[in-house]
Amino acid sequence: EAQVTQNPRYLITVTGKKLTVTCSQNMNHEYMSWYRQDPGLGLRQIYYSMNVEVTDKGDVPEGYKVSRKEKRNFPLILESPSPNQTSLYFCASSWGRRGQADTQYFGPGTRLTVL
Amino acid sequence: LAKTTQPISMDSYEGQEVNITCSHNNIATNDYITWYQQFPSQGPRFIIQGYKTKVTNEVASLFIPADRKSSTLSLPRVSLSDTAVYYCLVGGPNWGGGNKLTFGTGTQLKVEL
Q: Mutate which of A102, A105, A106, A113 to disrupt the B interface (most B C-beta within 10 Å)?
């Protein structure tokens, strides 16, 4: 089954404790992205990656890191989480092909609480 | 990416047709219009995409006037399960792959009995 998976689905942590949220897709997509969703603010893009070893900032990259060492994986790293990073996080992937409009496939989400 | 404007919320009843309009006055020549649906605590799901005139699939129809400055998502005979947030996005070829993607706050559709 074609899908985007995220782990963990739920995470409660404390301020300053480094954490990683994993994202994996099995569709051989080139493009992957991370979003956070907060009440009243909709979905905001954090980082995206057009291919292996190619990443770029979205609208709200501060406090986050990403890496793309393999095509299928795109982990989101919070080196020193703070309470304002409490949010619902989504990973997404797509073909990212030039010359045609693209559609995103989203993971199930990770609900993060930073105390 | 072109900025989009949608109603914050809409209410409907089961069996009715629902039309959600999105304004995108500064849409570019090569921009497509895409709609996503999101249920609580789930990731958005692609519904439909179009460039001009009308597009129909098994879920919805998308109407785009000649000037393309707006678009209307039409959901025929809605049911309770169509209660969700609907997002309108506008962008050009490879915009999903090569550029930042802005969803906005979407339209909360509530369907009642």
A: A102
